[in-house]
Amino acid sequence: MLYFIPTPIGNLNDISFHSLEILQKCKLFLCEDTRVCKSLIHLLNEKFNLEIKPDKYIALHTHNEKDFLAKIDEIFFEQDIAYLSDAGMPGISDPGQFLIEYAIKNNIDYEVLAGSNAALLALVSSAFCKKEFIFMGFLANKNPQRQKDIENLMLNPYPSIVYEAPTRILNLVEEISKIDPLREIFIIKEATKKFETKFRAGVLEILKKIKTMDLRGEWCVVVNAKEKQFHQNILCEQDIYELDLPLKTKAKLLSKINAKSPKENYQKLLLS
Questions:
Q1: Alpha-carbon Rg of the chain, whole angstroms?
Q2: Domains with residue ranges and CATH for the chain
Q3: Chain mean pLDDT for the chain
Q4: Enzyme class, one word (predicted)?
Q5: Among candidates 260, 234, 265, which has minimal Cα distance to 248?
Q6: DSSP states of 170-188 as a string?
């Protein structure tokens, strides 16, 4: 059996009894990073007085998974195998999804265990979600794709969850404030860890707070839905004219509807 085991995102006590049982049972560990995995197993053994002793750790991540799986024999999966990403749920902004697809296509028995997930923790903590939400994971880290990702984020009709690196969190909040300075957001840093920090407020207030903070650590951001919700597939030009967005952003959106260049739409917006 192939087991996908969620690992704690900060607090070791978040590991489930089921996960600990499976970890003791498996003798082969596939890991996003063998060093992180070995360190985690050492801490779990020490904290819970266990003897998790796999015979082998094998690195399996987004850079080598295709080559690895192309070379192994099907008999490889006739043993009990645990797959662990560095933190959280495998396959959610972490490696694992490709391996699950492989298991499905090759009729390999697998089980995904329940466990820690930073996105859902942040969403519930924000109290923004009434029913639907959108998970966007990590946005692109370079322009122009990053700017497009942020613009799309701000147009989402439901609360949207984003993971962000400490080197880009300030930029993200600044860009959100430029597009909609009245938008309410929720941010959480180092979730479940000793120095967990979280805020829910208007984006300008959040921006002021994080400018004075040590930004090192893992961040999750929940952006509240736009008050005036709409479906993009029935969006008309007048809807875009009424949006509280920079003229350049409006011009780009209009060009997707009326087939005119962003420059032509921008000139028209200046005259309106």
A1: 22
A2: 2-112 (3.40.1010.10), 118-223 (3.30.950.10), 237-271 (no CATH)
A3: 93
A4: transferase
A5: 265
A6: HHHHHHHHHH-TT-EEEEE
**Angle of CA points 1, 78, 112, to nearest 5°:** 15
Question: What is the per-residue pLDDT for 230?
Answer: 44
> pTM (2 decimals)?
0.79
Phi, psi dihedral angles at 42 (to 5 degrees): -60, -45
Q: Which long-range contacts (CB under 8 A, 24 or more apart) does 246-255 make?
A: 246/178, 246/179, 249/151, 249/179, 252/151
Average pLDDT over residues 74-94: 94
Tens digit of each residue's pLDDT (9 = 90 or more) over 128-140: 999 999 999 999 9
* Cα–Cα distances in angstroms (integers) from residue 183 to residues 43, 80, 164, 179, 214, in the given order: 41, 48, 18, 9, 23
Q: Which amino acid is at 56?
A: K
Q: Mention every residue, 6+ apart, whose C-beta is less than 8 A from residue 220.
A: 118, 119, 121, 122, 161, 162, 163, 164, 187, 188, 191
